[in-house]
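Quick note —
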Amino acid sequence: MAQTSIITGQYVRIQQTAATVMQRFFAWVIDAIFLTIASAILFGMTESIAPTFYTFRIILWFFSTFLILSYPLLMEMFVDGQTIGKSIMIIKVMCLDGSKPSKMSLFLRWILYIVDFGIGLGIVSIVFSKNCQRLGDLAAGTTVVKLSKTQKPYILRSFEFTDHRYAPAYPEATHLSVRQIEVIEHLLYSDNAQQRGKLINQLAQKVENILGIRAKENDAEKFLNKVYNDFQYYSTI
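Predicted structure written out below.
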C-alpha cells in the first residue's frame, strides 16, 4: 500500500498508510446507499407534508436537495474528517502535515467533487499522485488515510493546564505555532504511530533545538506533554 507523510515541517515525519482506491470506492458506495435511502425519505416527506402547498413543497425540495448534496462536506466538517462510509471503511480525511483540515480546505475539496467524479479524473489522480490525492485533495492540501482498527477515538486526554495550581516551566513554548503544537498533540495522543517511542525522542530533540531549551524532565514524552500544556496555559491567560 502507498505510504503518505502526514507530519512534516520542522518536526518528525510520520508515515500513514494512504487509503486505497477500493477503500475510497466502497466508502463512496456506502455513502451512496445511505443517501439514496435518506433522499427517498426526505422527498417522500416533502410530498406528504405539503401536497397542496406548491411553494412550501418547492422550498422543502430545495432544502432536501441541499442536505443531500452537502452531505460529504457537513459530515467531514463535523465528524472529524469522516462520512458514514469512511467511518465504516476506517479511513478519514487529513491534511498532509497531520493537522485537521480547515473548513475552507474541506469546502475546496467538496466543490471539486464535480471535476473529480463528473469527468472521472479523481480515480486517475488518486492512482498516480504521490500521496494518493484526487484533484480536490491536491487543491486543499489533504489526503485520505487508513486508520488502525485498534485506534482509539482522537480525544485530548491531558488538560493539566486548566488546574489553578498548574505551574508552567517553559515560557518559550509560546514561540511555537498552533500548527507545531498540533504536531506534538497528534504524536502524543496517536495510538497508531509507527515507532512511537523513537519518534517522540526525535520530536523532543527538535523542540529543544527550536526553542533553545533543555528538557527538565528525564522522559521525552513527559517533556513534550509539559511543553504542550505550557503552550495552552499561556494561550488562555
